[in-house]
C-alpha cells in the first residue's frame, strides 16, 4: 500500500515536471526588441545592455553622466550582430522628477519603438551602522533604488499592457532578501522593490507582462568599490564569507531569467538557497520551481541557522575587540 502511494506520488511529480513548461510564459524574443537599461553606463547595467545587444536588441541606456554614457555606447557597439542595431543614450536622474523620466522614455519610444524590456538597474549602496548613518542617506537610497525603479516602470507599463507584451526587471540585491549588519538603509530600499514587484506582477500577468526581481551577490563593479569604502568592519567580514561575482556572469543570468519571464533571478548556490528560503508568497513561473521550494525549505532553513549563528559571532567578536581596545586606550 505504502509502495503504491509512493509510486503515485512519484508519477504525480513527474507529470508536474512534464507539464511545467506548458504553463510557463512564452520567452521574449530579443532580436529587434527595444531594451531600456537604467544604470546602463556602468557595472551590471552595462553588462546587461551588452548581453541584450549581443542577442540583437536595440538599446536605450539611461544614466546621469553623459561622458560615461558615450563611453559605454562605444563599448556596447563593438558587439553588434547586424548593422541596423542602435544604442541610444539618455542622460537623466531617474529619481528626481517623474515627468522628466516619462518624457525621456517617450523620446526613446519615438526613436526605437515601444519598450519591450525595461531593466531598472540604476542604484547605489551605502553601508554604515544605523546610529552613524545620516537620515539623508535613507532618503537618498529610497529615492534612487526604490523611486528610481518606480518612475521608469510607471512610464512604460501602460504601453506594455496595451501591447500585451513586456518585461520589467528590478535589480534588487541579496541584501534585499536578508538584513545584514550595516545595511539598514540599503536593505530597506531593496526590500521595498520586492513588495512593488510582487504586487505589480499580480496586476500585469493577465496582460502577458512579466516581472523579474534579480538578487545579485557582491559583484565586481565600480559601484561595489564605492560601497566597500563605506562598510563597517562587521559588514566587511560578513561579506567576505562569500565570493565576488563577475558582472558579465550576473548579467547573463538576469537576461536569461527576464527572457523566460521568471519572477526570481539569482546567482550561484547561495543565491538559489536564499531565493528558495525567502520565496514566501512570491509568484512562481513554473511548477518545477514551486516543487523545488517546497522540498528544499526545511533543509535550507537549517543551513541558514548556521549562517546566522556565524554572522552573529562575527558581530559579537568585533564588539568585544572594540571594547577591549577602548579600555586599552583609556588606560594608556
Ligand atoms: N555590485 C554589487 O555588488 C551589487 C550587488 C547587488 C546589487 N547591486 C545593484 O545593482 C545595481 C547596479 O550596481 P553596480 O554595482 O553595477 O553599480 P555602478 O557600477 O555604480 O553603476 C550604477 C549605474 O547607475 C547609474 N545611476 C546611479 N544613480 C543614478 C540616478 N540617480 N539616475 C540615473 N542613473 C543613475 C550610474 O550612472 P551615473 O552615476 O552616471 O548616473 C551607473 O550607470 C544597483 O542597483 C545595485 O544596488 C549591485
TrEMBL record:
Annotated pathway: Lipid metabolism; sphingolipid metabolism; Sphingolipid metabolism
Stretch forming the signal peptide: 1-25
Coiled-coil intervals: 62-111
Record-level Gene Ontology MF annotations: 3-dehydrosphinganine reductase activity; nucleotide binding
Top-level EC class: oxidoreductase
Subcellular location, record wording: Endoplasmic reticulum
Main location: endoplasmic reticulum
One annotated GO biological process: sphingolipid biosynthetic process
GO CC term (a single one): endoplasmic reticulum membrane
Keywords of the record: Coiled coil, Endoplasmic reticulum, Lipid metabolism, NADP, Nucleotide-binding, Oxidoreductase, Signal, Sphingolipid metabolism
EC number, as in UniProt: 1.1.1.102
Function: Catalyzes the reduction of 3'-oxosphinganine (3-ketodihydrosphingosine/KDS) to sphinganine (dihydrosphingosine/DHS), the second step of de novo sphingolipid biosynthesis.
Family under the similarity heading: Belongs to the short-chain dehydrogenases/reductases (SDR) family.
Name under which the protein is recorded: 3-ketodihydrosphingosine reductase
Source species of the chain: Cavia porcellus
